[in-house]
Amino acid sequence: MPSNGIRDRVAIVGMGCTRFGEHWDRGANELLVEAALEACRSAKIEREAIDAYWMGTLTSGRSGLLLSEPLKTGYRPITRVENFCATGSEAIRNAAYAVACGAYDLVMAIGVEKLKDSGYSGLASAGGTPTDGTQSSMTAPATFSLLAPAYAKKYGLDPATLRRVLTRIAYKNHANGARNPKAQYQREVPEATIENAPKVAGMLGVFDCSGVSDGASAAILCRSEDAHKYTDNPLLIKALSFIAGPADGAKRQDYDYTTFPEVVASAADAYAQAGVRNARDEISLAEVHDCFTPTELVLMEDLGFSTRGTAWRDTLDGRFEIGGAQPVNPDGGLKSFGHPIGASGLRMMYEMWLQFRGEAGPRQVEAPKLGLTHNLGGAPGRCVSFVSVVGAN
Amino acid sequence: MAGILRYGSYVPYCRLQRARLEGGGRGERAIANFDEDATSLAVEAGREAMRGSAPAPATLLFASTSHAYAEKLNAAGVHAALDLPPEARLVDLASSSGAGVAALGLASAIGTGGPSLVCCADMVVGAPMGAREAMGGDAACAFLVGDSEGAAAQILGSGSHAEELLDVWRGPEQQFARQWEERFAQQRLVPALVSALERCLAESGLAPSDLKRVAVDSGHRKVGGLFARAAGLRPDQLADDLSGSVGRAGAAHAGLLLAGLLDSAEPGDNLAVLSASDGAGALIVQATERIGDHRPAHSVADWIQSKRADVAYETYLKWREILPFEPPRRPDPPRPAAPPMRRSERWKYAFVGSRCRSCGTVNLPPQVVCVQCGAVDSMDDVPYADATARVATYTVDHLAYSLQPPVVAAVIDYDQGGRFACELADVDPKKVEIGQELEMTFRRLYTADGVRNYFWKARPRR
């Protein structure tokens, strides 16, 4: 993988995040302004200090004007970023490169999504590009539901055990969300409720799916040598990797729906940039793209947290719970924090920001060394993947 | 002399039990699934007829009373799905159940101008609780008619008897056809049939007793028997009219009966088929010694046996959009766009993929750069509509937009190589399994802004 990385050259010095959820009374405008101004307050700057912006959204608007108009940013460069559900992480990555190369000194990455105006539950994006009408009609839960039976078959899990594993993932992330005042869902959900929920696709029930929500999140970045102008506790970027795969899972018979090769590749790239040799031992905590429960299961193996065929056991053993050896999605994840698409990658980073500054309250992971965020867009066999590694030193 | 070179039939998978209808009745009728229409039915029958080494037709005649488009050439969709050459003449024949036999007569009259493919398909939708709803049927048939040299059957004669008769009618503003008092048409149609048969026999040089089997298609129950008596036919010459198993399938019905006779014909058998509708039409064919070589993969009896018999009446009304229903809680799909459809015509309509010249990998849909070896612009077209596949993995999608949720979506691996993800048709969500054997079927995925969006699905092998 020909990436050089920008290890420790860029720092995050301020962040903001709205509560995620059904904001019937606020539009993308208001959500963007709230997240941006909270980030500015956190970095103790006025918004005029920001030289340039990278703003991510999948469907809530187009062009930099979506941000400049409500925030009154004056005459400044704003780049609109889109890369499926990894959009928010792409905003961070591009903003980081801009300060790393010296083009700007202080920039903002911001992401927003206003999903609840569509009139449909679930993710409903009307395709804008004219097509020949032959495209797959499979919904997101349907595509990700393909992981579950494939995983069970490959590793000899009986359906009841697999169900228990998925339920445990949903239970954990809801329990974590219950400790998070900004999460969409802040209640623990009994395992029986998760298990007996109405089916959406395959063996996935309603509680196996992430929350569809509105929200925004923002980060302020500068070169590391400038970080202490803004904060005593900056978050250092160790690695940023992004992969767009060949989208051939439904074209080649050798893809078996138990892995995301794009995640494996982006993790390997990120670990090389960050000097991580053993992710299971060296990554203290992670925010990963748990869009559906089987996704989190497979990601644990693709990211190297568990060896192949063992993530289900690690899950049942509690390894990924707060207080476990390697907490995953301590903020509740997409599952209970919610998934306003353009904001999710930044929301993951927001949890790292809190955790590495010791501000995560009842979710605080003890003395983290390295944190990882993982953001996915697309579907098994046809996706993009982002991995970052961050730390305090 | 003209002959039938190849033929095929298609009866959709679903049945409606007449006992479940108001007024009861015996037997069942075939009903097209929610994702089928006259065009897709015609394509399925056409594929049966054109499989293997059938010569390309110079003319395509598409007869139906339920064409999917009132304006826009329906035969063009069939032509594209069958991947026929562009020089073919395309004609829609419509507005009478007699159009099927008329198309066959026309095709035999065209004679030496190159083979003609006659596709007949119909979906007979009657007003709820009425006789037409109960007794109608949905089916299709196809005949490749050309020079009789090497044909499966020779066309010995064809005859017509024209008559301006108010029997069944439906204006463009009417959803359902109406019918005049039955006894009137019965008494007019029987002599018309006799007259058409006589003309046909004269042309063939045959007597009524030379006919091994005679199939009569009529919308009136008693016409077949009355005609047989009037024409001097023995009861054992009269073939089953499939009213108990398929129902009367409009413009496709006479041809379906003929296909059924050809399925079991022996060389030398003389077969007559007649249709009584807006007058009468007749055709007499003689099976040749090549009949056994040119039979389709599925006989009419095969199709009739392969079925799902438990479709609820309300479900049927919903499929035909007679009963308003709660729409899917998803955005309506956008209408497909004309230029991209034109660009991908052979993929979308005929399911033609590409095979890499460098590594042999089948790419579905066709690619410029090989998905396996990366070779650029090194592809040959590969028709894949007849490829067989197995379920690699699948899911039951309760959220996807469909007239009949849940959608069963599968990733399928072809026995001949290549993989594709598509919907499954004619499938019970509870009975799908990995490794299940599949074949491709041409369907109407949805209609948006009046545009019928056709593409391929996979179905359990029938």
| Total individual domains of chain A | 2
Helix content of chain B: 10-25%
Strand content of chain B: 25-35%
Which runs of chain B of at least 5 residues are low in confidence (pLDDT < 50)? none
Low-confidence stretches of chain A: none
Distance between the termini of chain A: 26 Å
**What is the tally of beta strands of chain B?**
21
- CATH fold name of the largest domain in chain B, please? Peroxisomal Thiolase, Chain A, domain 1
State the end-to-end distance of chain B. 35 Å
CATH topology of the largest domain in chain A: Peroxisomal Thiolase, Chain A, domain 1
Counted up, domains of chain B total 2
Biggest contact: A-B, 38 and 48 residues
Rg measurement of chain A, Å: 19 Å
Number of strands of chain A: 11
Quick one: CATH superfamily of the largest domain in chain A?
Thiolase/Chalcone synthase
- General shape of chain A: globular
Label the overall shape of chain B: globular
Short summary:
The complex is a heterodimer of chains A (393) and B (462). Chain A is α/β, with parallel strands linked by helices.
Tell me what the structure shows.
The complex is a heterodimer of chains A (393) and B (462). By secondary structure, chain A is of the alpha/beta class. Helix content of chain A is 33%, strand content 19%. Chain A has two domains: 10-118 and 214-234, Thiolase/Chalcone synthase (Peroxisomal Thiolase, Chain A, domain 1), CATH 3.40.47.10; 140-209 and 237-391, Thiolase/Chalcone synthase (Peroxisomal Thiolase, Chain A, domain 1). In chain A, the strands form two sheets. In chain A, strands 3-2-4-7-1-8-11-10-9 form a nine-stranded mixed beta sheet, sandwiched between helices. A two-stranded antiparallel sheet of chain A has the order 5-6. In chain A, a hairpin with a 2-residue loop joins strand 10 and strand 11. In chain A, helix 3 packs across helix 13 (341-356). Chain A is globular, with a radius of gyration of 19 Å. Chain B has two domains: 2-319, Thiolase/Chalcone synthase (Peroxisomal Thiolase, Chain A, domain 1, 3-Layer(aba) Sandwich), CATH 3.40.47.10; 339-460, no CATH class. Helix content of chain B is 23%, strand content 30%. Chain B contains eleven helices and 21 strands. Chain B has helices at 38-50, 74-81, 99-110, 131-135, 182-204, 223-231, 250-264, 300-305, 313-319, 338-343, 345-348; strands spanning 2-10, 14-17, 28-31, 59-64, 89-94, 116-123, 138-147, 153-162, 168-169, 178-179, 213-218, 270-276, 279-287, 352-356, 362-363, 379-383, 388-397, 407-414, 419-423, 437-448, 451-460. In chain B, a hairpin with an 8-residue loop joins strand 9 (168-169) and strand 10. Chain B is globular, with a radius of gyration of 22 Å. At the A-B interface, helix 4, helix 5 and strand 5 of A face helix 10, strand 17, strand 18 and strand 19 of B.
